[in-house]
Amino acid sequence: MPDRQEDAEKALQTTADAAKSNLDAQVAQANNDINNNNYLTDAQKAAQKQAQNDAVDVALKQAVIDVDNGQDVPTVNGIPDGSTAVKEINQGHVTATKTPTQQEEDLNAQIDDQASKVKADVDADVTLKAAEKAAQKHTIDSFVAETKAKIAGLTKYQDRLDVVNQALDAPKNLHQQGKPLAEHKSDAIAAIDQKAAQIRTQIANDSRLTQAQKEVDYQLVADAVAKAKAQVNAALNADEIAAGLDYGTVQLEAAYQQKVQEQYAEKQPTTPETVVPTVKTAPVLPQTGETEKNHEGALVAEALVASVAGFFLSKVNKRRQDEK
């Protein structure tokens, strides 16, 4: 009888130890399942394990007590599968409510939303020209495409989330502001003055132009410079400054070149050198006039002689008649 009692106690203890090991194994398995769930974030996993541990811990202690108090092997064997602890263990692991595809779509939407905000900031940046804005937005779009490709190549949600968290701030750095408008304007004015000085020097040194033509060209430069600077000073963004700069440099150069070619084609007025020979021959004209006067005097004298001769001839004829 004592041997049988002793054997029963040993069997009950062995069963109790096995039941406790079973409980511990189920807790460990639940934790492993949570850890191996690719669709949960690390924060979600930690929260589930903590909540499970808190609930299981109380239930597990009670299960151990029940095991220790078990009076027979069948009862003790049934405790691990039917205890509250095991129910808590099984309920503690909650998988993600969204499929991997849905998760990927949500992450991509976050990237798109952030990129759209940054591109809007680029568009509103008055320090950037249109071409610069287009280039920066293209860089942002390329970054978004690369980020989405990384997300698609990962299987664990946490890894995907890490990529997104790192990428959300990156588009902000891709927006690079230009120079302040005041500095933009100062640079443009300096470039306009430099171009104007260059053209004025060309005008001054152009031997094919008359002074009158040069004065016209100087005025063309002055008018263009005044208009270009007014446009730059009134500009509200980089594009308007660039337009004023273009007018005062590129367009001014083109207008000047066109005007000069027209002036070259004009019929040049008589130069002082060609007038000089005419002045030198001018004294001939008084000599020609004096000759004519002398000729007229000769005719008068001839007429006078004829008149006197006629007078004496008439006196002679009258005397002859009287003598008869």
Kindly describe this structure.
The chain is mainly alpha-helical and 324 residues long. The protein contains 13 helices and no strands. It has helices spanning 2-35, 42-69, 73-82, 84-92, 100-123, 130-152, 157-167, 170-174, 181-204, 211-234, 238-265, 272-281, 284-323. The model is unreliable at 273-320 (pLDDT under 50).
* H/E topology pattern: HHHHHHHHHHHHH
Q: Structural class given helices, strands, pairing? A: mainly alpha
Radius of gyration: 58 Å
Mean pLDDT: 78
Query: Which stretches of 5+ consecutive residues score pLDDT under 50?
Result: 273-320
First and last CA, distance: 233 Å
List the keywords.
324 residues; mainly alpha
Itemize the secondary structure elements and their pairings:
Blueprint: H1 2-35, H2 42-69, H3 73-82, H4 84-92, H5 100-123, H6 130-152, H7 157-167, H8 170-174, H9 181-204, H10 211-234, H11 238-265, H12 272-281, H13 284-323
